[in-house]
């Protein structure tokens, strides 16, 4: 990282770390091991959701941690995040790690926008990227996943591995079952997503009838930044009153 621009949105306040939460929960008298785990989960969820409530005008970027600067989709994510931040003034939210996460945060950071990272420690791949204006740390994957999607008005999925697909299918399932309503899901990169869409159509829908035809329309596959920008501009404000 060289000549990193100054971003006035960088926050200096301290969030509780997973280790601090663990120590806090262990100090509660009479708490069993299961009780300590429940306490830790509860504290992480409360902190994550409380912090994400500040970022109601936001877009979440998902994608592989394995892309590097110079890779096609790293640069596309970086450019798109910069444009969203600069032209629309929206916060970019990611998992705070390398790859697409870094690219999304970097684009927003370099545009002088808000760039939030919901970080987690993993045995491989995950390192925090330096382009975050607000870091919220997690130990539990599912607490982080819920917080990542809590306030965003649009979800953008770049090519990725099992983790990206897991997060994508969760949002599609919530939209399919009407637990979420009207939140655009953008699958960026037709060379990656079109073969999966073909599986949805030919295997899930036509052969096994495990989804309906309309389920294939709850996402948009695109390679166009302009189309993404239009989708975001036309997205309705998120109504959490219907999310039960």
Quick gist of this model?
The chain is an alpha/beta fold and 244 residues long.
SSE topology:
Elements: H1 18-26, H2 33-52, E1 58-62, H3 72-88, E2 91-94, H4 100-110, E3 115-120, E4 134-138, H5 141-150, E5 154-157, H6 162-176, E6 185-188, H7 190-207, E7 220-222, H8 225-234
Parallel strand pairs: 1-2, 1-5, 2-3, 3-4, 5-6, 6-7
Helix pairs in contact: 1-2, 2-5, 3-4
Protein model, in words:
With 244 residues, the chain is of the alpha/beta class. It has one domain (56-236): Rossmann fold, CATH 3.40.50.450. The protein is built from 8 helices and 7 strands, in the order ααβαβαββαβαβαβα. It has helices spanning 18-26, 33-52, 72-88, 100-110, 141-150, 162-176, 190-207, 225-234; strands at residues 58-62, 91-94, 115-120, 134-138, 154-157, 185-188, 220-222. A 7-stranded parallel β-sheet has the order 4-3-2-1-5-6-7, sandwiched between helices. Helix 7 (190-207) links the parallel strand 6 (185-188) and strand 7 (220-222). Helix 1 crosses helix 2 (33-52), helix 2 (33-52) packs parallel to helix 5 (141-150) and helix 3 (72-88) runs parallel beside helix 4 (100-110). The model has no long low-confidence stretch (mean pLDDT 94).
